[in-house]
Design goal:
Blueprint: E1 5-13, E2 16-21, E3 24-30, H1 32-42, E4 47-51, H2 63-72, E5 77-80, H3 86-94, E6 99-102, H4 104-108, H5 111-120, E7 125-133, E8 139-143, E9 148-149, H6 154-164, E10 168-173, H7 185-194, E11 199-202, H8 208-218, E12 222-225, H9 227-230, E13 231-232, E14 237-238, H10 245-255
Parallel strand pairs: 1-4, 1-12, 4-5, 5-6, 6-7, 7-10, 10-11, 11-12
Antiparallel strand pairs: 1-2, 2-3, 7-8, 8-9, 13-14
Helix pairs in contact: 8-10
Length: about 260
């Protein structure tokens, strides 16, 4: 039976693990491989690693580093950052990565979604929509670390991606990123009503209750978080954490 997934998301900048607030003020947290190894021990459902510099710097994915991460990762791994061609995606899959995530490339070249899905299967192709409210108060997709406005509605874009064969949509709230005050339920509601493919949400989780409430409302969904799984306490001490198997089971039983 399909169940909700609880997914840590690691942001990488200059090969270091960082955490941001509203896609800005990046705080260095250490070597991401240490977090990967701890999450192995925590038996996480899957792991997402996003290289947030690759697209902004117009460079290819760092295949050597990705291969190292994949070799150390004992759970399904999703990688995103700098992927612009089918060939790059095939190389990354060959390194042991189960899913690839594209964002800016899906905006500039939507057909890339279909091209990759045709080669490796839709289930392995993820599109990440980085969304925030524009000056008119409307939800809009932004790229390049939230700096470039696209003029695209996330709801219409999600429908287009579904039609092109995407296997999953990740909805990432820039406004809620790192704030730890809960997910943007209004945004999630509108995207969920637009598509039928699997969906993961990111941006705003401040407690396991936030994840529980998300599961309670949407049932089969990916609940992803960054700050929640790398910080601990009101002073945000760096501590890689994740509910142990019994805690996770109890959480899902309570809300699912």
């Amino acid at each position: 039976m399909l169940k909700p997934r609880i997914i840590p998301c690691l942001l990488v900048k200059n090969k270091g693990l960082v955490k941001s607030v509203n896609f800005k003020s990046h705080k260095y947290l250490g070597d991401p491989i240490n977090a990967v190894r701890i999450f192995n021990e925590k038996q996480v459902d899957e792991l997402m690693i996003l290289d947030i510099d690759a697209t902004a710097e117009k460079r290819r994915p760092d295949f050597k580093t990705i291969e190292y991460w994949a070799s150390q990762c004992r759970m399904p791994l999703c990688y995103g950052g700098g992927i612009t061609t089918v060939e790059e995606a095939k190389i990354i899959f060959g390194l042991g990565v189960e899913k690839i995530a594209i964002s800016s490339a899906a905006v500039t070249n939507p057909s890339l979604v279909t091209q990759i899905a045709d080669k490796v299967g839709s289930q392995s192709v993820i599109v990440v929509m980085d969304v925030k409210k524009n000056k008119q108060g409307l939800y809009e997709i932004f790229t390049h670390n939230g700096e470039v406005a696209t003029g695209l509605s996330p709801f219409e874009f999600a429908i287009q991606m579904q039609e092109l064969g995407v296997g999953e949509i990740v909805v990432n709230s820039i406004d809620n990123d790192g704030v730890m005050k809960g997910y943007d339920i209004n945004l999630i509601d509108q995207v969920r009503k637009s598509i039928s493919v699997p969906m993961t949400v990111l941006g705003g989780a401040g407690s396991l209750n936030d994840i529980g409430e998300l599961i309670s409302k949407y049932k089969i969904i990916g609940a992803s978080a960054g700050s929640l799984f790398v910080f601990k306490g009101v002073y945000k001490a760096v501590l890689i954490n994740y509910p142990n198997p019994s805690e996770k089971k109890a959480l899902i039983q309570k809300y699912f």
